[in-house]
Design a protein that fits this description.
The complex is a heterodimer of chains A (225) and B (310). Chain A is mainly alpha-helical. In chain A, 79% of the residues lie in helices and 0% in strands. Chain A is globular, with a radius of gyration of 21 Å. Chain B is mainly α. Chain B has 10 helices and no strands. In chain B, α3 runs antiparallel to α9 and α4 packs across α6. The longest helix of chain B is centred in the N-terminal third of the chain and has 36 residues. Chain B is flat, with a radius of gyration of 24 Å. Classes of the chains: A mainly alpha (225), B mainly alpha (310).
Chain lengths: 225, 310
């Protein structure tokens, strides 16, 4: 067991997991926020476009999206995201397309998380804000959005945790992250429970603090009803 | 699509002009993206009729690849949902036990399997099965997929059971205890039936998660729909059409299931079969995840299928 840990760089694999998580989190937050704004906007076309995106993406397996990004878009359509003449081009392209695929997929869930935050605000709040004479902008700024963001904290935390776990799917397109390394070890050495526990506990260590942080944030900032 | 939103005023003339402008911008952006995709596809010859006709006009892609793949996907999903339900009931009841060690043990097991990626469990389970040839060459991958799906989704269902029981009004268990039922009897004959009814929409939603996750089987050589689609794409040199067709199958089935979950939920709420109302599968276990979603939504229709599993 110890020689396995010495021979294979487990920490580097988890660094790649964190790297994918951070960049895909930023990407999906940006794209998901745009989608959420479209989705709750009063313009029917934008709202429908947002709904179309969400319904298509969240009903498609992430595995399919990532495989399509690499085998379809990168190799068939020839759209590289990293220079193709460098010695690490295969690796770099796989990583960047994995980040794009993860962002595209999780943006749909970020959108729904933000929308569910808006959904937690009671209609009475909007009615009360307008009836005391606040303008549209004021009622948004002072009443609705503060509550909506607080309501979105817990679901956004769940999306971040799921994203961390979903980066393992990138191993299918050849990104050397934690689960890919575990697969290699299992194939080359032994399928022992100890090897599995090392990697499983690695993921628990990555996701547990995030869960605790978001839970305590959402409790502390919860809207009293 | 959605109920009239209270977020915005009825638009006046200037707002209507702005909406028209935004509609135009939306159309233009969408058309631009579509044009770019089509141009790129056309450039590499993906729009040739021959690339697509195999999937529409002839049946051999379907009989040799896609239909067997669909069958394999459904087999893995069906076995997994049944086993996950058993796992979830056992551990969900365990977490509600009044024996602290049982509660503690079940809690650790459930939280562990919820925190570990499904793919990691599949790699490990398949590695063990293949190394020891547990189920025979033909079934090692199948049970690898089933193991991963069962452990993760079983833990999610255990959390659903727990939150379903917790969500019931206290009067339900108090009434049971006051007529002389034991704690176990109250759980089995009063709380669980109502919790299960309330869980039904979430369970259907979980089926979507299982179907999508079964595609992970492609990583351990299980010939499910995605794997068969990849094989078909390579065999007929039509990689992009193959992915599009497979994606469409997944989207149609999963969207249908999501709609079904919504119908079930409305039906249960209308008939008032569960004293606590239904739980959506929105982030099971997450604080504010269940129940909070069911409030009078400002943004229109209810939010469903929030679990971003692969």
């Amino acid at each position: 067991m110890l020689e396995i840990l010495q021979e294979y760089d487990v920490l580097a694999a988890f660094r790649m997991t964190v790297y994918l998580t951070v960049f895909a989190a930023v990407g999906s937050l940006v794209l998901g926020t745009v989608l959420a704004i479209m989705r709750v906007s009063p313009v029917p076309t934008l709202s429908r476009l947002g709904a179309l995106y969400v319904n298509i993406v969240r009903n498609t397996p992430l595995t399919l999206i990532l495989l399509f990004c690499v085998l379809g878009v990168l190799y068939v359509l020839q759209v590289p995201l990293a220079p193709t003449d460098s010695p690490t081009s295969v690796r770099d392209n796989a990583i960047r397309w994995a980040i794009v695929g993860l962002s595209v997929y999780h943006a749909a869930f970020v959108c729904e998380a933000l929308r569910s935050g808006v959904n937690t605000v009671d209609r009475g709040q909007a009615e009360a804000a307008r009836s005391i004479g606040l303008t549209f902008g004021q009622s948004m700024r002072e009443v609705i959005l503060p509550q909506a963001f607080r309501g979105a904290i817990a679901p956004l935390g769940s999306v971040l945790i799921a994203l961390t776990k979903n980066t393992t799917v990138a191993s299918i397109i050849g990104v050397a992250e934690a689960s890919g390394l575990m697969k290699t070890i299992i194939e080359n050495e032994t399928a022992s429970v100890a090897v599995f526990m090392v990697f499983a506990i690695g993921f628990v260590i990555l996701t547990l603090p995030v869960g605790l942080l978001f839970t305590s944030l959402s409790r502390r900032l919860a809207v009293k009803r | 699509v959605s109920a009239p939103s209270l977020l915005f005023d009825a638009p006046g003339p200037r707002a209507r002009a702005r909406y028209r402008l935004l509609t135009l911008v939306g159309f233009l952006v969408a058309a631009g993206v579509l044009a770019l995709v089509l141009w790129k596809l056309g450039q590499s010859g993906q729009l040739e009729p021959a690339m697509w006709s195999r999937f529409v006009l002839t049946s051999d892609v379907w009989t040799q690849y896609l239909v067997p793949g669909i069958v394999k996907t459904l087999q893995a999903a069906a076995v997994s949902i049944v086993l996950a339900l058993v796992f979830g009931l056992v551990f969900g009841m365990g977490r509600l036990s009044h024996l602290a060690p049982v509660r503690w043990f079940c809690g650790v097991v459930v939280e562990f399997f919820r925190a570990v990626p499904v793919l990691l469990m599949m790699y490990f389970a398949y590695g063990v099965y293949a190394a020891n040839n547990v189920f025979g060459v033909d079934y090692n991958a199948f049970y690898g997929v089933v193991t991963g799906l069962t452990l993760y989704n079983g833990s999610v269902i255990a959390e659903l059971v727990r939150s379903g029981v917790h969500q019931l009004p206290r009067g339900q268990s108090e009434a049971g205890l006051s007529i002389g039922l034991s704690r176990g009897q109250v759980l089995r004959s009063i709380e669980l039936p109502q919790a299960l009814t309330a869980m039904l929409p979430a369970l259907v939603g979980q089926l979507v998660v299982i179907l999508k996750d079964s595609a992970l089987g492609t990583a351990i050589t299980y010939p499910e729909l995605l794997q068969q689609g990849r094989d078909a794409g390579t065999a007929y040199a039509a990689i992009i059409p193959a992915y599009v067709v497979v994606a469409l199958i997944f989207i149609v089935v999963n969207y249908g299931l999501t709609v079904l979950a919504g119908r079930v939920e409305r039906r249960i709420n209308r008939r008032g079969r569960a004293a606590g109302g239904t739980i959506t599968n929105a982030m099971p276990g997450a604080p504010g995840g269940s129940g909070a979603m069911a409030s009078t939504g400002l943004a229109g229709d209810n939010v469903q299928n929030l679990d971003p599993r692969a």
